[in-house]
Amino acid sequence: MIKNNDKISSNQVAILLFTTMVGAGILSLPADVSKEVGPNGLLAILGGGLASLFFARLILWISSKFPTETFSEYASKLVTKPVAVVLSIVLIFYLSVFVSLDVRIFGEVLKIYLLPSTPIETIIITMLFASAYLVRYGLEPIARMSEILFPIMVIPLLLLFLPALSDVDLTNFLPFMRVSLMKFLKGVFVTTYSFVGFELLYMVFPYVIDQEKLKKSVNASIISTTLFYMYICFFVIGIFGYKETKEQLWPFLTLIKSINFPVFFIENVEGIVMAIWTFTIFTSIYSFHYFAVLVLSKLIKAREHSYLVLPLIPPMYLMALIPDSIVTLYKYANLVSQYLSIFFISFLPIILAFFVKLKGLGDKK
């Protein structure tokens, strides 16, 4: 049975998806696309957004066939219970890995820019317990938190880049499409990590009050995320050029530091941006954390998810400490996005949709 504090609206789903997707990936996205497609990064992001929209709608369609069930429950009807159990375990691991990657990236950034003397272990465990505190209270408080943080995340970042508009050199986006099709598709592929998050649609459908409006919500969240990424990359690549952008680890933060603001307007821009980004990464962490716990609770048929929140923290913490450097950390992130993300985002929805059609299961409406 779904409790009242787990019921959310379709508008809250749209905001939850946006705040989950716009997380750690925003830091390295301009560099990632610049490495693969050079000055055509904006088109690669647009392609990634359209692909994400297609698969998000496909996952939503599958979930709509089982409006009262989550992934662990309806997958057993489609691909047999043993396979569904294995898929659920892998999904728990997948979501937990993203929590670990995000808290480690958060720790590395904070240690470099704000807290150089603080042990990274302390930063990681503090963020995990902050996430756990919110996750214990259920989906509706999480959605409300995302509603509160959404304008704090988006509006300042949109405004902060405007003083740099005069520094954008449009020739940095030339030559246009002088790249092979395979290279361009690989560029679309590398944007996957930045769009990770809409897989939450596997689980969220039964918790939505106005399910008939979810299509518009999913469209709005994916399209707004795509436009937001294109906005950021327009300034980063337009100012630095793709050759300089691809050599940087976090070009997004580098650009913020290079923008000259009027003295009377603001003084410590870097500190404010780090505070905003902390909210951004926090929204991703608690979303992945909650849905990892939710899948686990459905898998073992637990009556309360709150008892499972703390037991997942130790493995998440230990996984966050496995990479011995930032370079290794991003290698692990690339491996996860290349295999697990692609599986859950594209291959699995196609397989499940095939079985829905083959078996004729689900709601006929």
From TrEMBL:
Protein's UniProt keywords contain Ribosomal protein: no
Topological type in the membrane: Multi-pass membrane protein
GO cellular component, one term: membrane
Main location: membrane
Protein name, entry field: Spore germination protein
A GO BP entry: spore germination
PANTHER family in the record: SPORE GERMINATION PROTEIN A2
Pfam families: Spore_permease
NCBIfam families: 2A0309
Localization of this protein: Membrane
Transmembrane feature ranges: 12-29, 41-62, 82-101, 113-136, 148-166, 187-209, 221-242, 272-296, 308-330, 336-356
UniProt record similarity statement: Belongs to the amino acid-polyamine-organocation (APC) superfamily. Spore germination protein (SGP) (TC 2.A.3.9) family.
UniProt KW keywords: Germination, Membrane, Transmembrane, Transmembrane helix, Transport
